[in-house]
Write a structure and sequence with these properties.
Blueprint lengths: L1 H25 L35 E8 L14 E2 L5 E8 L5 E9 L3 E10 L5 E7 L8 E9 L2 E10 L1
Parallel strand pairs: 2-8
Antiparallel strand pairs: 1-3, 3-6, 4-5, 4-7, 7-8
Length: 167
Amino acid sequence: MHTTRLLITALVAGLAMAGCKKNEEATPVVTPEPAPSAVPQTMPTDPAYTPMPDPTMASTFVVRSIDLGSAIGGDNRVTMPTTTFRPSDTIYAAVASDGSAASVNVGARWSFQDGQLVNEASQAIAPAGPAVTTFNISKPDGFPVGRYKVEVLVDGQPAGQSEFEVR
């Protein structure tokens, strides 16, 4: 009889433990909801409203293309892209970009065949979408014939380049 009681007690204890494990597995995990934001979830209906750029926002600025030509239109884009120029031409580089940033420094470094610096310029912009930034070089007495390159820099880092020739 003592052995039977011991077996029954062991059986009941085993079933109780198995039942506890099932409850542990079935217990749902509750994730607390995030605290409500202090920023309103709707945009103001005032048509003059322009959101201010967030200075902590990471830059999403990217150079899409660099077009060269001897003239630009009212939209700052090159009117007839080319990579061949005459010595007397004014040479434009239209840097098409996309993205937004609180402030980006876009630069152009123009160089002659062996890397000789011809000109360097930069512009600080605060883009909020597609944009075109233009740079140009000219030389009243004419550029020497040869191969040239314009490098585009974004915040001092290379972002693209385009080669051209003066004939």
